[in-house]
Amino acid sequence: MTKIDLNADLGESWYGNTIGNDADLMPLLDSCNVACGFHGGDAITMRQTIELALEHGVAIGAHPSFPDRKNFGRKTMEIPSPDLFALMLYQISALKGMTEGLGGSVHHVKPHGALYHYLNGSISGAEAFVRAAAKSNIPIVYGPPTGQLRVMTEFHGLEFWPEGFADRAYEPSLHLRSRQKDGACLNDTTMAVEQVRLLQSGKVRATDGEIYPIKVKTVCLHGDHPGAAARALAIRQLLNT
Fold first, then answer.
1. DSSP secondary structure string, the chain?
2. Which of 53, 61, 77, 218 is in Cβ range 3.0-4.6 Å of 33 for a Cys bridge?
3. By its UniProt entry, which CDD domains does this protein fall under (predicted)?
4. How many domains in the chain?
C-alpha cells in the first residue's frame, strides 16, 4: 500500500454563506486547499482557515478558480492566457501573503472546479497557471495524474503530486464522471473508503465496474459535500492503519 496524503477543499464560505464544516474536517487532513475569494472564500474566512490549518499542522495550499462565484467555479470560462496568468497570480498572492503574515507558508497550489479540468486539456492555460505558481515560489502543484497540467508543472521544474478523489466516480477513461450525470459523487462513506483503499494500491474501479491502474500521491475529499466530516474520519482511520 502506498502512503497517501489526504486533502480537502476548505475555506469556501463567504459573507455569511456557510459552506462545509471546516472545523471538523481540518484535524483529519494532511493538507488543505484554501479558496482564494473567486469561487468562494473572503478575507475573514481565509484568515480563519489558515489559522485552523496552522493550529492542526495541516499543509496549506492555494485553491484559485475562474472568477465565477455565481456557479461556484464549476463553469468553464474562456480567458486569454495573459489574463488567466494575472487572475491566478492575484489569487495565489492573496493566500500566500495572508499565510505568511500569520506565520505559515504555502505548501502547494491546486486549481478548483472547472479550472482543474480546463487546465488539464489546455497547454496555454496550464502554462499560465504553472507560471503563476512558479513566480509565487510555490513548489508543488496538485492535479490529475496525466495531462497538460502535469506536463507544464514538470517542464517548469516544480514538483507534481498526482491526485485522486475519494468522493467522485471515475469513468473508464479515468476522467471524473460529469457532475451533470447520476452517480458522479460518492456520498456513501463505505464506497468512499473502498475507493481510497483501491487508490492506495494503485487502482480504481470505474463506472463500468472494471478496475484500472492509477497512481496518486494525494486524495481529495470535497469539503462542501454533505457528510464530508464523517467520510473524512473513516478515511483517516483507514490511512492510519
1. ----EEEEEE---BTTB--S-HHHHGGG-SEEEEE-SSSS--HHHHHHHHHHHHHHTPEEEEE---S-TTTTT-S-----HHHHHHHHHHHHHHHHHHHHHTT--EEEE---HHHHHHHHH-HHHHHHHHHHHHHTT--EEEE-SSSHHHHHHHHTT-EEEEEEESSB-B-TTSSBPPTTSTT-B---HHHHHHHHHHHHTTEEEBTTS-EEE---SEEEEETTSTTHHHHHHHHHHHHT-
2. 61
3. LamB_YcsF_like
4. 1
